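Annex B. Sample input.
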Amino acid sequence: MASRFPLLFLSSLLVVASCWCVEGGTLDSNDPLIRQVVDHGDGAIAGDNELLNADHHFSIFKSKFSKSYASQEEHDHRFSVFKANLRRAIRHQKLDPSAVHGVTQFSDLTPREFRNRFLGINRRLRLPSDAREAPVLPTNDLPKDFDWRDHGAVTAVKNQGSCGSCWSFSTTGALEGANYLATGKLVSLSEQQLVECDHECDPEDKNSCDSGCNGGLMNSAFEYTLKAGGLMREEDYPYTGTDRGTCKFDKSKVVAKVANFSVVSLDEDQIAANLVKNGPLAVAINAVFMQTYVGGVSCPYICSKRLDHGVLLVGYGEAGYAPIRLKEKPYWIIKNSWGENWGENGYYNICRGRNICGVDSMVSTVAAVSS
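Annex B, continued. Sample output.
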């Protein structure tokens, strides 16, 4: 298990080092994109003195993430946003010391732009009051650590691009796992089918519907999939990152069907039990700390439970590594949809036990048809 995750080590000088997989390589604490926010040895977090070199950091950022801007005015605006996000990363590091926060591919976006382009839980949608609840499962024999990647039920990390379609990736990830359990085959399913064809509405609010790049809800997407007869392969209906096209669903090419789906109790032992028994789970989360997340176990002291991002829960660990001055922290393993160059190879580790950032608040399980 431990070998899957880049770990944070604390040297005898109390200098935090980190690993961040980027384009086949790793970044350590000497990388200027990370060094500006890590512990400097005396417990202090880098501050405004580091921002004096913000132009140099911005040049590295533009090169590393292939950023270019249409005009000098736009360039200057993005540089201003970048400096503001350096300060945000510093604040996040103070609030979330068991993780590492720094510069990511989102560091030239305002919080509003980040929400609009890369999140996508439709806030008007909510779980219907009559949503089917998952049955209570025994929890006394749960393994201490569990990861569906080790059991072949998780496809490679995908990238939603600048489209608020995270809900569709959460949906396909859960059904990919359920379909694997039902058929023994791991098949990558089509998010684009959901983006272009799924307009399922909240039964209690007919004006709240799954809306492509403008957001949606995983349970509504499961309902659509059940009614439509299933999802196609990703290769047969490839992802484009836009919702401007027309629906191209071909029922004859369906490869995964929903048998049923249900909402899991807020009890984290029940979440773990459903994960182990039923496969990866569709969950919603507050993503405010994810804009600056680099690695480690994220356990912020304060985090809103206002849900705005759909992700996939694939496993959990019993004791996530934290610097010596902090206790070890059990964590959930979250598959994200921002590509492998974000976070820990596309994954986010977040504390278990206190519903951090609302991660336990909206959890759904799905079962697939076995034939």
